[in-house]
Design brief:
The protein has 527 residues and is mainly beta. 7% of the residues lie in helices and 57% in strands. The protein has helices spanning 13-24, 349-356, 364-377, 435-438; strands spanning 50-63, 77-92, 95-109, 116-130, 134-146, 164-180, 184-197, 205-215, 223-236, 241-256, 259-270, 278-292, 295-304, 307-318, 321-332, 396-408, 412-425, 442-456, 459-471, 479-491, 496-509, 514-526. It has a 22-stranded antiparallel β-barrel. It is globular, with a radius of gyration of 23 Å. The protein starts with 12 loop residues before the first helix and ends with a strand.
Length: 527
């Protein structure tokens, strides 16, 4: 399950939180630092209709540079975070999925930085409105996102950082699917989404899409077919209203039991590169190869209105490891360009281990809880991503490459995440001022290496090394951030955990370079 993340970013601390709570009827919290140390068991993931788990997390951080000022500048502070949270999950009946929410009150002591509230949300719910026919999907997330790729970058939630905004996204998607007698199958889906931010309007947008498809009944036949169409509308608060419609036919040929060849052709009509609509033909070829249950390869290359688009995905799972590689180039309507702003985003620890335990815990909802508990037990942040991204208010073309590896042993866990993104603006008529208006190209390269060693059944030591490089077309638009984070975490009981750690961050740039040293302690209690 790749839960879609819709960001429900509260512009006022408690007001919108209450509204969100009413909308989804239960909220679930995810703490941001320390994790319970008892390794999860399959018994913990036993089938239950629903679960409601409150928690309370307290974090104290001592830092010598809370405002991320220049090198050699002393700007120390004591930061206290109090984070009540709630997790709701359901894996039976007509409602399946989870909601994970936490509200953090942050206080800065011995510092002119004002206190604040931070929200964190990950949600993915599916309701079966009419049995075996009509469904409603809801997804949402709230994350802390860098406003500019060229500003000071930070580790974690960026406490006290001026180059940071809380991004709220939400998506509601009713859909129906069924058969047209013994002739074909159909699927119709409506997507309604919105994005909003605090401190900036760069990501604010409304979007809608209608998708229709009809195709052959049997996916195992020698030759299968489908007809697909979509209507997309998007309005940026600081940008333009854009429309992008398409229709195409797809043929799938089963060349072998484990090899499927794909061809498509169609038309696209949009105003993404002009004030009026332009129509273009589109066509492409692809393949899906699944030699074993644990190995998957898919490749697709398409001729599109903006040039060549492609998608490559490879995954291989073994008993204690998973290897993944993806390479894609396509149009992006994503207003927050990181792709790693929530635990369920591509390229995060969560997504990597979610794939690793696919055969161990087949049920998606049970696996979600199992993976989060496992990551907490070994001290890994579920939402860790190598690239921080930035906010944008126009359609762009994104090339994204990711390589990820996870190895698990009896007492050791090794995780490697590497990502490179290249962004360029597609909508040249947009007058919005953001990173892609100040630079024709924005490239970000990131690497995270994590090692966790279990000292005892209740305690582990963890080390994380990370590096992120950002570059634009100008020499002044380049920067490098390196960080080292080490922590010790232990279980103080069945529902209580403690973590002690330190971090060192070096940010090198032409403008606003800084160094930071920090010590932190986190106490987490589930009820």
């Amino acid at each position: 399950m790749r839960s879609a993340a819709l960001l429900v970013a509260a512009q006022t601390g408690l007001g919108r939180n209450t509204l969100t709570a009413c909308a989804v009827s239960a909220l679930l919290g995810m703490p941001g630092g320390t994790w319970a140390q008892d390794a999860p068991s399959l018994d913990a993931a036993a089938p239950r209709s629903y679960a409601l788990t409150p928690r309370l997390s307290t974090t104290a951080t001592v830092t010598n540079n809370i405002s991320h000022l220049g090198e050699g500048v002393v700007d120390g502070a004591l930061v206290i975070q109090l984070s009540p949270g709630l997790r709701f999950s359901s894996n039976a009946g007509r409602l399946r999925g989870f909601v994970d929410y936490a509200l953090s009150g942050v206080s800065y002591i011995k510092s002119p930085v004002r206190g604040e509230f931070q929200n964190a949300l990950t949600a993915a719910l599916t309701a079966e409105a009419v049995e075996n026919w009509a469904y409603v999907d809801f997804s949402s997330s709230i994350t802390q996102q860098a406003i500019s790729a060229f500003g000071p970058q930070t580790v974690g939630n960026g406490l006290g950082d001026v180059n940071r905004a809380e991004v709220w996204s939400a998506n509601l998607s009713p859909n129906v699917r069924g058969n047209l007698g013994n002739v074909a199958r159909y699927n119709a889906r409506l997507n309604l989404g919105m994005t909003n931010t605090r401190k900036s309007a760069l990501a604010d947008a409304h979007n809608s899409a209608l998708q229709l498809s009809v195709g052959g009944l049997s996916g195992r036949s020698l030759l299968n077919w489908s007809l697909e169409s979509s209507l997309q509308r998007q309005t940026f608060k600081l940008g333009r209203h854009t429309e992008n419609d398409s229709a195409r036919g797809v043929l799938q040929f089963a060349a072998h039991d484990d090899l499927q060849l794909i061809a498509n052709a169609g038309v696209e009509s949009n105003n993404l590169q002009s004030s009026g609509r332009e129509q273009h033909s589109t066509y492409g070829l692809g393949l899906n190869w699944t030699p074993t249950e644990r190995t998957k390869l898919s490749m697709q290359r398409d001729h599109r209105f903006f040039g060549e688009a492609h998608s490559i995905s490879f995954e291989h799972r073994m008993a204690r490891s998973i290897w993944r590689f993806t390479d894609s180039k396509d149009v992006s309507n994503n207003t927050g360009q990181s792709g790693g702003t929530s635990s369920s985003s591509p390229g995060t620890n969560y997504e990597l281990y979610y794939g690793l335990y696919a055969s161990l815990v087949p049920d998606p909802v049970q696996r979600q809880a199992y993976v989060l508990d496992y990551l907490r037990s070994v001290g890994l942040n579920p939402s860790a991503s190598p690239v921080g991204g930035f906010l944008s208010s126009a359609v762009s073309v994104v090339r994204r490459r990711e390589l990820s590896l996870a190895l698990t042993g009896v007492r050791d866990t090794v995780t490697i995440l590497a990502t490179r993104t290249e962004n360029r603006r597609l909508d040249s008529l947009s007058q919005v001022q953001d990173d892609l208006s100040n630079s024709a190209r924005v490239s970000q390269t990131g690497l995270i290496f994590s090692l966790s060693h279990r000292l005892t059944p209740q305690a582990s030591a963890n080390l994380t090394l990370s590096q992120q490089k950002t570059a634009g077309v100008l020499a002044t638009q380049s920067s490098t951030m390196r960080s080292i984070l080490a922590n010790w975490s232990a279980s103080l009981g069945a529902r209580t955990s403690l973590s002690l750690g330190a971090r060192y961050v070096v940010f090198k740039a032409t403008v606003n370079p800084y160094n930071e040293k920090a010590l932190f302690a986190n106490l987490n209690r589930q009820f």
